[in-house]
Design a protein that fits this description.
The chain folds into two domains: 98 residues, Immunoglobulin-like; 236 residues, no CATH class. The protein is built from four helices and 24 strands. With 375 residues, it is mostly beta strands. 6% of the residues lie in helices and 45% in strands. 33% of the residues are buried.
């Protein structure tokens, strides 16, 4: 008698088809039963039986459908002026205990997997996730938790966060040393500021605040009106691609919208729309009959904000698409950070330059109720 359990990746996105888990008892037949117990952060979150496959006598389950129920999609709300902050409940552990019973319901064998880790990321069937691409370690280069490494656009007043995976996961250990921010000025001068990370043990996603205001809170006046753009590299030059953030200086109005949103890798992306905007209001009134008059006793108002992006490159148009289907979005506007939902019902991402220029109109609603006086 021998129970074989399939191997599981040391760390992986939770939304995927590649967290299938198989148990096989060498003496099993169609009358055998496998009992699975799933432990999440050390707590048993699910226990169930699975009848052996009638032809090959094993049992296969999709762990993604079980583990993803433990995650909530949010955008980290940064406070203070620190550059590095751990985001809680972002990387979580799990293991599986399996028991195999024969037709007489007698325990034949049992086993338990090693502890593994998942986080709130996505791997679709047309994608391939590799932890080596997103964990900065001493053996190879990596990227931050984003597929958008250049051509960002924000104003000097906006927020900008980037994230990376920290911790030791058996077959891969992070050795993220920090970041170097290099500014490029309109007078052709270049200078750099270094921020050092000292914790590569804690198993969490590390938030890195690279907002101009936060950089300036640590290095006075570093990002200023003469800054054209700044780049971000890993302190020991372990990045696959240098991140570049452009400072937008020309815009149609002062009421621009800085979007922060959860991307498909479980990190935070950002982009600022600085062109024209408008408000659409849907107004519904309920009337109360009072003898020979009618009075409004309740007014329900829904506000939709429409803002147009600046002209986009094909690269920007492709990368910005995740904003439209992200489950968690915040907007920074007039020094206030609010939760919103994007209301666009469809999106066309072009792969070649059309005759006209490329831009998006972003429609969104605040998650907060729009209040109005009652009669």
């Amino acid at each position: 008698m021998a129970l074989t359990l399939s191997s599981l990746p040391s760390i992986y996105p939770v939304y995927t088809d590649n967290l299938n888990f198989t148990a096989f008892e060498s003496t099993a037949n169609a009358n055998f039963t496998y009992n699975f117990s799933v432990y999440y952060n050390g707590v048993n979150i699910d226990t169930f039986d699975y009848f052996a496959d009638p032809t090959i006598f094993n049992a296969e389950i999709n762990l993604s459908t079980i583990l993803q129920t433990q995650f909530t999609s949010t955008v980290f709300n940064k406070t203070g002026t620190t550059v590095f902050d751990f985001i809680n409940n972002t990387i979580n552990s799990y293991y599986i205990q399996v028991r195999c019973y024969n037709a007489a319901n007698s325990l034949i064998s049992s086993g338990i997997t090693a502890t593994r880790y998942v986080y709130n990321g996505i791997e679709n069937t047309f994608e391939t996730f590799s932890k080596n691409d997103y964990v900065f370690n001493s053996a190879s280069t990596a990227n931050f938790l984003t597929k958008w490494n250049t051509e960002r656009a924000i104003t000097i007043n906006d927020k900008a966060y980037i994230n990376t995976i920290i911790g030791a996961y058996g077959d891969i250990n992070s050795s993220f040393a920090g970041i170097i921010i290099t500014r490029y000025q309109s007078d052709n001068t270049i200078s750099a500021a270094t921020f050092t990370n000292t914790d590569n043990t804690t198993k969490k996603i590390l938030n890195i605040d690279v907002s101009p205001a936060n950089i300036n809170a640590n290095v006075a006046g570093f990002i200023n009106t003469n800054t054209l753009y700044y780049t971000i590299t890993e302190k020991n030059n372990r990045q696959k691609e240098i991140m570049k953030i452009n400072i937008v200086k020309e815009y149609k109005n002062s009421n621009y919208y800085n979007f922060l949103y959860l991307n498909s890798l479980g990190g935070i992306d950002f982009f600022t729309s600085v062109k024209n905007y408008s408000y659409n209001y849907t107004i519904t009134k309920e009337l109360l009959d009072q003898f020979n008059t009618q009075k409004v006793y309740n007014t329900d108002i829904n506000q939709v904000v429409n803002t147009a992006t600046q002209i986009l490159s094909i690269y920007q148009a492709d990368k910005l698409k995740e904003l439209f289907y992200s489950p968690a979005v915040k907007v920074w506007n007039n020094n206030i950070l609010n939760d919103i939902r994007i209301t666009n019902q469809n999106l066309v991402v072009t792969g070649k330059y059309p005759k006209d220029t490329i831009y998006y109109v972003i429609n969104f609603m605040y998650n907060n109720k729009f209040y109005n006086q009652k009669y």
